[in-house]
Write a structure and sequence with these properties.
There is one protein chain. The protein has about 425 residues and is mostly beta strands. It has helices spanning about 10-20, 50-55, 60-65, and strands at about 5-10, 40-45, 70, 75-80, 85-90, 90-95, 110-115, 120, 135, 145, 165-170, 180-185, 190, 205, 215, 235, 250-255, 260, 275, 285, 290-295, 300, 310-315, 320, 335, 345, 355-360, 365, 380-385, 400-405, 410. Among the domains are: about 1-60; about 310-413. It has 3 helices and 31 strands. The strands form 9 sheets. The protein has a 6-stranded mixed sheet with strand order 20-21-22-24-26-28, with no helix packed on it. The chain is elongated.
Length: about 425
């Protein structure tokens, strides 16, 4: 591919100052020479346009269009093969790209991207799978970053997201395994599904104060994330939002949270040891073991997967054990269920590594699907002792049982 360059004519006075500052370098790294006494022609490579803008004003984009390719109704791009730089300019939104309609630079060796002021939307899938992309500049004119825009850019180490951005689509940065930190714009109110999932080196995230919702899998498998501060304005944490965050040990739930969905902090590899709820929260509470409950402690939502405690007695105020409430804990060996409990939900005790026996009190009238499934160590199973015959909903259990006329013992695999 031919390397495309921008040729600008500037006055000799400004050119002299610019050359002295080392701004205008040719593609081979040498400084351009003056032509004539009154004007100089300077070759400006893509990476130098920002600094050139500062000194001499914006380039003549109409002239650039003559040698550029389109990537939107009025958005264009130029690629420099030698430097690996992609320059995008124009007005309005970039085109959306899909698996059937890849970006025109999808097979080029792009290492950096600079988007010029005037572009308003980073298109869907615009830079996904650019495995050598290391840096990108986004101007203040951009307000939207669409779905999967930077998905699987595995060498992208940092990115500036301007305060002008009000929307970031699902999966926008998923699989950016070299991304270590991100500061989100204050105008953002939602972090969409899988936005940062599998960013395995992501260590720090600064959330906006106006954030309302963290959607499903938003930070799932961010295995290097050690801490995160949830803003006071946050209302919703959706299912699996922080699933398998193995380095995230503690989480503080602020007072305005009104919805925490299933397995928000769970997973086989979850590192959560303690969940603490603000005492002024109207919907949730926690105990000294870091267990998440509803406000009145009638429903237990989540026992910390990585808690180091080996035994736990469920409070006698609890009537419902929710889905995945004790699932995948690696250290619990003894669980006591009080006779206040009537309902045990699906997968409530699934995959417990060290629990070998659980007694179900006669107050329990319902046990959900695979509530005691033991996928991690199927050769062990769990002996479940049922105190009476009113336990009538037992679905999808693979079990063998014996009846000694005093109780029923079920074994689950």
């Amino acid at each position: 591919m031919t390397v495309k360059k921008v040729i600008l004519t500037i006055t000799s006075v400004i050119a002299t100052a610019a050359v002295a500052a080392g701004i205008f370098a040719g593609a081979n790294g040498t400084k351009s020479e003056a032509v004539g006494e009154t004007e100089t022609k300077a070759v400006i490579t893509v990476s130098q346009t920002s600094e050139a803008d500062r000194i001499i004003g914006k380039p003549d984009y109409d002239a650039l269009k003559e040698t550029a390719e389109k990537c939107g109704d009025d958005v264009y791009y130029i690629f420099n093969e030698e430097s690996g730089e992609l320059f995008i300019f124009g007005t309005g939104a970039m085109d959306n790209c899909t698996h059937l309609n890849f970006a025109p630079w999808a097979e080029l060796d792009v290492t950096s991207v600079r988007v010029a002021d005037g572009v308003t939307t980073i298109g869907e899938g615009a830079f996904q799978y650019l495995s050598n992309l290391k840096s990108i500049y986004i101007p203040d004119s951009v307000t939207m970053i669409m779905y999967s825009a930077f998905c699987d850019c595995e060498n992208l180490t940092s990115i500036n997201i301007p305060e002008s951005v009000t929307y970031i689509g699902g999966g926008a940065f998923a699989g950016c395994t070299s991304l270590k930190g991100i500061t989100l714009p204050q105008s953002l109110t939602t972090i969409n599904m899988e936005t940062f999932s599998y960013c395995t080196n992501l260590e720090t995230v600064v959330l906006p104060k106006k954030l309302i919702s963290i959607e499903p899998y938003a930070f799932s498998s961010c295995t290097s994330l050690t801490s995160i501060t949830l803003p006071e304005n946050l209302r919703w944490i959706r299912e699996f939002a922080f699933y398998d965050c193995s380095s995230l040990k503690e989480i503080y739930i602020p007072k305005n949270i009104m919805g925490i969905e299933t397995m928000a902090f769970g997973g086989l590899e979850s590192g959560i040891e303690k969940i603490t709820v603000d005492k002024n929260n109207l919907y949730y509470s926690s105990d000294s073991f870091g267990v998440l409950f509803d406000k009145d402690k009638t429903a237990v939502y989540q026992y910390p997967v990585a808690s180091k405690n080996t035994s736990y007695s469920i409070p006698d105020s609890v009537t419902i054990i929710c889905e995945y409430a004790f699932a995948f804990n690696k250290n619990l060996s003894t669980i006591s269920i009080p006779d206040s409990v009537g309902y045990i939900s699906d997968f409530a005790f699934a995959g417990l590594s060290d629990v070998s026996e659980i007694s179900i009190p006669d107050s329990v009238y319902y046990v959900g699907c695979l509530a005691f499934s033991h996928k991690l160590t199927p050769e062990k199973g769990i002996d479940i002792h049922v105190d009476n015959t009113r336990l009538y909903v037992l679905k999808n259990w693979n079990s063998s049982w014996s009846d000694d006329n005093t109780n029923v013992s079920y074994r689950f695999f």
